[in-house]
Amino acid sequence: MKNIIETTVRIEGKGDSKEKALNIALGNIQRKIMKDYKENMIIRIEPINVEVIEAKETSHIERFLFFFFPRQRSKYSVVLDVDINLFLLDVEKINFEKNEQGNSLKGQVLGSHFLK
């Protein structure tokens, strides 16, 4: 029922600061894992190692009305490979007991012979 998988996930993030770009990238781990493992329930995602594949800073000078108040603006982007331990619960292997209940509101109003 419980599976432990070690895998590597490649994630990307962009932001106005280095911290924001990294936070956005690390926040995308769960979304990426949820896409890949739809049939299982994720119990825990445990990062083991983070490797920076690409880190870029793009800067430009911004001006008010094309001439006034010049200031330097930067945007950051990162691409990371994160090694993770993934703890999964296989929902299909859980045996659920099936209990049927009668006397629903619809059955009480219409009578049980109309529901069949």
Describe this structure in words.
The protein is of the alpha+beta class. The model has no long low-confidence stretch (mean pLDDT 85). It has two helices and three strands, in the order βαββα. It is elongated.
Looking at this protein, list some descriptive labels.
116 residues, three-stranded antiparallel beta sheet, 2 helices, 3 strands, 22% helix
Offer a quick outline of the entry.
By secondary structure, this protein is an alpha+beta fold. Helices cover 22% and strands 53% of the residues. The protein contains 2 helices and 3 strands.
Helix content: 10-25%
Main sheet record:
3 strands, antiparallel
Q: SS-based structural class?
A: alpha+beta
Give the ordered list of helices and strands. Answer: EHEEH
Low-confidence stretches: none
Strand order of the largest sheet: 1-3-2
Whole-number average pLDDT? 85
Number of helices: 2
Mind telling me the C-alpha Rg?
A: 26 Å
Number of strands: 3
Global shape: elongated
Ends apart, CA distance between termini: 37 Å
Q: Strand share of the residues?
A: over 45%
Write the layout of secondary structure elements.
Layout: E1 2-15, H1 18-36, E2 40-64, E3 68-90, H2 105-110
Antiparallel strand pairs: 1-3, 2-3
